Amino acid sequence: MSSPEAARRALAARVAEVASRGAAAHQEEFGQLAARLARRGVDVEALLARLASLRIAVPSWALGTGGTRFGRFPEAGEPATLFQKIDDVAALDALTGANGEVSLHIPWDEPGDVAAARQYLEASGVACGPINSNTFQDGARPNDPRASWKFGSVSNAFEEARARAVDHNLHVVDLGARLGSRALTVWLPDGSNHPGQHDFRGALDRTIDSLRRVHEALPPGWSMYTEHKPFEPAFYSSVNPDWGASLLVARELGENCRCLVDLGHHLPNANIEQVVAMLLRERRLGGFHFNDSSYGDDDLTAGSIRPYRLFLVCCELAAGEADGLVDDHPLDLMIDASHNIKDPMEDILQSTEAILLAHAQAFLVDRAALRAAQSANDAALAQEILQDGFRTDARPLLREARRRKGAALEPLRAFREIGYRAEAAARRGHARATGL
Amino acid sequence: MSSPEAARRALAARVAEVASRGAAAHQEEFGQLAARLARRGVDVEALLARLASLRIAVPSWALGTGGTRFGRFPEAGEPATLFQKIDDVAALDALTGANGEVSLHIPWDEPGDVAAARQYLEASGVACGPINSNTFQDGARPNDPRASWKFGSVSNAFEEARARAVDHNLHVVDLGARLGSRALTVWLPDGSNHPGQHDFRGALDRTIDSLRRVHEALPPGWSMYTEHKPFEPAFYSSVNPDWGASLLVARELGENCRCLVDLGHHLPNANIEQVVAMLLRERRLGGFHFNDSSYGDDDLTAGSIRPYRLFLVCCELAAGEADGLVDDHPLDLMIDASHNIKDPMEDILQSTEAILLAHAQAFLVDRAALRAAQSANDAALAQEILQDGFRTDARPLLREARRRKGAALEPLRAFREIGYRAEAAARRGHARATGL
Amino acid sequence: MSSPEAARRALAARVAEVASRGAAAHQEEFGQLAARLARRGVDVEALLARLASLRIAVPSWALGTGGTRFGRFPEAGEPATLFQKIDDVAALDALTGANGEVSLHIPWDEPGDVAAARQYLEASGVACGPINSNTFQDGARPNDPRASWKFGSVSNAFEEARARAVDHNLHVVDLGARLGSRALTVWLPDGSNHPGQHDFRGALDRTIDSLRRVHEALPPGWSMYTEHKPFEPAFYSSVNPDWGASLLVARELGENCRCLVDLGHHLPNANIEQVVAMLLRERRLGGFHFNDSSYGDDDLTAGSIRPYRLFLVCCELAAGEADGLVDDHPLDLMIDASHNIKDPMEDILQSTEAILLAHAQAFLVDRAALRAAQSANDAALAQEILQDGFRTDARPLLREARRRKGAALEPLRAFREIGYRAEAAARRGHARATGL
Amino acid sequence: MSSPEAARRALAARVAEVASRGAAAHQEEFGQLAARLARRGVDVEALLARLASLRIAVPSWALGTGGTRFGRFPEAGEPATLFQKIDDVAALDALTGANGEVSLHIPWDEPGDVAAARQYLEASGVACGPINSNTFQDGARPNDPRASWKFGSVSNAFEEARARAVDHNLHVVDLGARLGSRALTVWLPDGSNHPGQHDFRGALDRTIDSLRRVHEALPPGWSMYTEHKPFEPAFYSSVNPDWGASLLVARELGENCRCLVDLGHHLPNANIEQVVAMLLRERRLGGFHFNDSSYGDDDLTAGSIRPYRLFLVCCELAAGEADGLVDDHPLDLMIDASHNIKDPMEDILQSTEAILLAHAQAFLVDRAALRAAQSANDAALAQEILQDGFRTDARPLLREARRRKGAALEPLRAFREIGYRAEAAARRGHARATGL
User: Fold this and answer.
1) Which one-letter DSSP state was computed for residue D42?
2) Distance separating alpha carbons of residues B404 and B52, to the nearest angstrom
3) What is the tens place of the pLDDT at every residue in B310-335?
4) Has residue D433 got a pLDDT over 60?
């Protein structure tokens, strides 16, 4: 097997070869768009630089085919080891120039040899983004009623179960620190399945009490993210159901705790962009899990259902950035979409493209004109201004940013052309379908 | 016209006459229930006393037939004046023994002569509950773009419109103080109808800035309630969309501001009882607007769609009371349901019955056993305990509490039997249908 | 006052003058896009012709500022008469080249002199689209319990109320026939506000029985549209709540009855594009009411909240057209969005633009490639193909189609530049705000 | 091991022993209720007989602890074999007198020896209710792209996958016939996860074509049930998303196909009782899967979240029965709730109790009075009549019906007292937690 460095070079060469074929058509279309934008006063180079700086972290768990409670149908060539996952992230980054960060999940990504894992990350050019704890499964003592997380982890009525959940989080922080991460994402399965099961206030008290012990143990420079979700796996109540609860928890925990927004974790019809604005106002927005959703789900490709909402969220981010609200804490942008039927890497490529596109369109919005329309109560004009950004075909900008990094013009097409999956399948074989 | 006192006496006599007919059957059924409850250790007399102490305020605006944007079909005999509204509230209280408080709405209930209004209230035995400001209509300067509330009141981008909204609220507080009220309810129409119209953060800043001036002017002993609502009349965003925002606003305004929960003001599937628990935990729950809702509406009879949810909310109130979380501020319980097709007073009688029934059932829950089940993670048993309260037919308790007050055993039936509406129609005539 | 013909000529001249200023920039951008599309095999001229043939009917009721049950804030210059409404439609058509059809609403648009109204329509170049009956208000006998529509119209338990509703619909058909319309749209307010009020089956039986009498009286060549809506003004049940009921009713009524889809009349998360596909499959799709919606509302500007959904609906229409499913009945495309805070004509211009844009993007989808991807279960590629259509900035195509008709390049901007509203305000004055 | 017959007798004796302790208190309470009901004209004996005739089928898959995609935490003593599942159903029936029917799921319950399975069912006094096919998992050829059900079963674009799905259903029908079942329930996982993946009309065509082959092969006297669900496991569209589609499919398949309503398979805010009424009107209602739901889930204990809705559904069933709409096809009443955190049998006992209670309350509704109120447009009175049924504590009726059958007065309490689970755990051991 070749070294990660050699693999990177080989991959880059193949990506460059594919890219060269579309270069002429791209240059013409980009040139036309750049000229139009320049005439409207857009600083195209600054825009390209900002786009080039965006980094969309890849969730390790989305590198394999997702599943539902009804079954899972994996593809050939999915990664089986942490090293293989890192390989896939490096390949994604070679294609997009924007995916050079992985978000690990413990215990799924528990490295046997931490130093070797860190070395492999570095050799692969992959940074270790926010790291995730997992208290929704319980490999250790599932059948011990006092210690199991069946009835919750940090909120459990049983002290022993809570202590184990705190310990697990402390372990994840320790691991993350050794791997170069700077943040812990705490998504909790805790909640109740029917009225009466939970004493709502008591469960929230216990949750805060448990997480405080984790927050106090954060290494210097670290952040902790609370992630709200109204339901699933608990189907009647969650201990952290919405942004209001998430903010409440973050404030009680302390200044290094911020709120993470997963686009799929909201009630029907929720105005998520306003939630983002309010968390920005409170300077407690930590980052995102990007995905899309049609019903109560949270794993569809980002931008595949409601691309305009994704754009509106990015508009709030651009506004918050312009107003200095993220100066002291750059946002962590992560994908959290684990698709059941697409090639997992293709799904990540499509999510990444949608997220970058929404950012580009948001950057194209004439913010000064928008503020003026808002101040004049000119609703129709304000809408025109936003829609003008959204309706602009900003794809040539993304291609140009990628071209300058040596990445692919069309990442999904390139992924297919270079035959990455077929090669991986030949090397890695086929995982078993589950739910059989 | 007879004096309010004489009218009260006459009404009470008619109600008592009707009640006497069903007394024997009631006594038998109540006796059987009381015996069963006593065997289970329930202190029936204490329970009756607690039930008798509940006061459900009547919203003045619900005394006339409600409407939709499509039309309104009023009944004969609806009240046209503030005095007539007070008469109706006194009549409701004569029937239920629980409705001796009115919640006024300004400018709809603007009294010409404040002293006379207060005197009439007192003579009628009707207390002045929380008073409501109204900045969603604008009789003063609707066509003046700088001053109109078309684009919002306390959040408006135009300073003059905001100033008028603050002034209106100050006027309402002053009026309420002279009428004996102790609380201002601020429900805001402010929001936006499409993406881009509002600068979310700016609108919230202006809202808080405006309301702070109202909060600072509250008389001693007064409270101010912020009332969240996700949408309507604004259909894309509201400045106070949910409990998280409401709590945020209340905290920024100061210690006399609390959150009011309207059961109809939540997104689909929201767990309202948990919201109530969280506001209790923060000691910021101020009171309720009771109604029910099937879709995005907020005007159906309390308990007519989801009576179990009403019960669960009351369980949280009972728990909060038991835990001392409302000691420093008794909750204001109000109806806010303005029915389009029922006789308005009949609708209030049905709402009142449902609210009292839910409280009675919540009081019947064995809280010690529930806590024990919760502490043991015994979800099935916890459910049994709650359901046992809900499944108990607690109506005999309500009847007994009313009987002891000289109110009706069956308020709705008595309302029909005494012919209140027909008599009112004869005196008051018929309002015009609108939307024609 | 000038004749309609003279007014049209004058307006056209002003629009042309404004358009001439942006002509050069447009030609460059259009030329670049046309070249790119041609290289991909798109027949640009055929596409322009198809776009030019689209006609988006204007609802007469949306020419004035909409309201909520909380109030209404009209603008200066709104039309007060049927003739003024026709003037506004003619002006919209001068700007867009796509709005030359009005959808009337009776009794709101009841013409005193039908022949004069028809003459004015023809002189104005405005066609009479589907005509709407209104049984949700009741100007005739609102206080007569046996005849009023308070408890429903065609489904009412009282025979007299039903008979009046049938008569009203027959009158509307007669009127429409004399004005040149070819279709009746029946949106019903009928439903119930709480459990128990309606015998669901009986109410549906009566509805079908009533509407059958209308269907039987349709003139030759006419269609009748049933329009489903889950709630409002009835808040617990509607007699025609969803597409399933609408199809059931249409089939029982007969072959000239089809279903009309209003985008705002669905439960949260409904997959509307699939509903459209199923109605197309049954050859029972009649047409659309276009708008957008965030919560339970139905009056936001088309494409302002979920433009991708609008595109997906248009993709189904394009597919149905390609498969010959609308050959025997061209779809009626109408706006039904009555905005509360925008200039009503500006809102219609924005809706029209969004609808045309979505159609253009749908026409750009490579349907042969899409079918191939679907047949290969290649979900990622299928998504790429759809998104490529949506992400293309098709606005130059719309501008070119307008340019060739002598309409405006940028209708909203032109509307402001020609000063239409200010002039109308000077002539027409200011309507009263309501809900005061 | 004892024979099923001996086990039944032993269990019955233990249940009877427990029941005897509460007999006196029950008799007093029942007597009081019966006297009150008799005074109101209720034929208590007829009511008891109707209640005693209700049979609530137990789903075999709910006898083990349910799971989410995040994990599963089984209990000790869960059944591992078909015989053990039948034992559990027999035990449930011994406790409730209403659960003597099992609904099997193939391949999960594939019997090695069909004759032995049938014999065991008969010896256990357990009938074989509707049998379920499963095409959402794929143990046979998951990795064969042309044959796998990854992209759908009966709707799959690939012919081979469809043929396998048809064959599986034919096998299930054959198996069911040999086990004494009379109905096949077809719940389909088929759908799409993102726009573009499915040709909606083509997928529906293929679905109907495949199922027609199953329908044609039904043995005499058999029914086939189509079960709609808006989403999950497909998260953008389902081939049978709602009752409208389900009815459309059932009609195209033929007269032996009816629609099955699962209470958890509806969009937010759907009026399920109206759906039931409409299917009854069309004489196409086949049966139910009872459960409850807070969000987008479908596995909570029946009646645990919205007991009033369960009651309203039962009111429609009672009305349909009274109107002769189920004469030619008695409804199949099944539980489909697979709880994650309760003892599975306790959960079924709670669901059964809630379903029976809702039926009893529905039977108590004075239908003649309700019809009269509906015919008079007396909405308030109609509500009173329904609520009177719901607010009545009908539990003594259920206990009496059970007492007369020798079942338990309080099934859940009795289940705990007789120590069934502990004994099963001792015999059966502990299943592995999954998702680890």
Assistant:
1) -
2) 9
3) 999 999 999 999 999 998 889 999 99
4) no
Burial class (CB in 10 A: 0-12, 13-18, 19+), B222: middle
Interface probe with C: pick from D143, D162, D200, most Cβ of C within 10 Å:
D200
Q: Determine the residue among C271, C311, C367 to mutate to test chain D binding: the one whose Cβ has the most chain D Cβ atoms within 10 Å.
A: C271
Token duo for residue B361: 């059932």
- C-alpha B48 chain-centroid distance: 22
Domains observed in chain C: 4-32+53-352+405-428 (3.20.20.150)
- Identify which of A192, A236, A386 has the shortest CB distance to residue B196: A386
Residue B296: what pLDDT? 84
For residues C7 and C91, give the distance between their C-alpha atoms in angstroms, rounded to a whole number.
Answer: 9
Q: Indicate the residue of D196, D375, D385 with minimum beta-carbon distance to C157.
A: D375
The amino acid at D339: H
Distance CA B71, CA B56 (A): 29
A151 neighbourhood in chain D, CB within 8 Å: 341
Taking CA C190 as the corner, what is the angle to CA C186 and CA C196, rounded to the nearest 5 degrees? 155
Taking phi first (over 0 means left), then psi (-120 to 50 degrees means alpha), and beta for anything else, what does residue D57 get? beta
Cα–Cα distance, A88 to A425 (Å, whole number): 12
Q: Which residues contact C376 (CB under 8 A, 6 or more apart)?
A: D157
Q: Which of D147, C117, B256, B71 is CA-nearest to residue A433?
A: D147
Residues of A in contact with B245 (CB under 8 A): 244, 278
Rounded distance, CA D179 to CA D120, Å?
A: 10
> What are the CA-CA distances from residue C418 to residues B14, C11, C18, C19, C415 (Å)?
70, 9, 8, 11, 6
Residues on chain C touching D267 (C-beta within 8 angstroms): 267-270
Closest partner residue to B385 among A196, A267, A374, by Cβ? Answer: A196
Q: What is the least distance, in Å, from the CA of B325 to any CA of chain D?
A: 26
Dig out the tokens for C391 from the structure: 């992400």
Helix (H, G, I), strand (E, B) or coil at B125: coil
**Residue C343 has which token pair?**
């200039």
Which residues on D lie below 8 Å from A435 (Cβ)? 137
The tokens for D227 are: 């079960």
CA distance D382 to A286: 53
Confidence of residue C184 (pLDDT cuts 50, 70, 90): very high
pLDDT, tens digit, 9 for 90 and up, residues A150-200? 999 999 999 999 999 999 999 999 999 999 999 999 999 999 999 999 999
A33-50 pLDDT, tens per residue? 999 999 999 999 999 999
Smallest Cβ–Cβ distance between A151 and the set D142, D304, D341 belongs to D341
Taken as a whole, chain C contains a residue count of: 436
* Burial environment of residue B115 by CB neighbours within 10 A (0 to 12, 13 to 18, 19 or more): exposed
Residues contacting C397, CB < 8 A, separation 6+: C30, C33, C44, C47, C48, C51, C360
Chain D: give the shortest CA distance to residue A431, in Å.
9
How do A191-192 and A237-238 pair as beta strands? antiparallel
- Angle (CA) D389 D392 D396, round 5°: 120
Test D391 with B346 for CB contact under 8 angstroms: no
Instruction: List, for residues A280-310, the tens digit of each pLDDT value.
Output: 999 999 999 999 999 989 999 999 999 999 9
Contact D277, C239 (CB under 8 A): no
Judged on CB neighbours under 10 Å (0-12, 13-18, 19+), D330 is exposed
Please state, for a pLDDT cut of 90, what percent of chain C lies above it.
91
Assign C143 a pLDDT band (cuts: 50, 70, 90): confident
**B305–D308: do the CB atoms touch at under 8 Å?**
yes
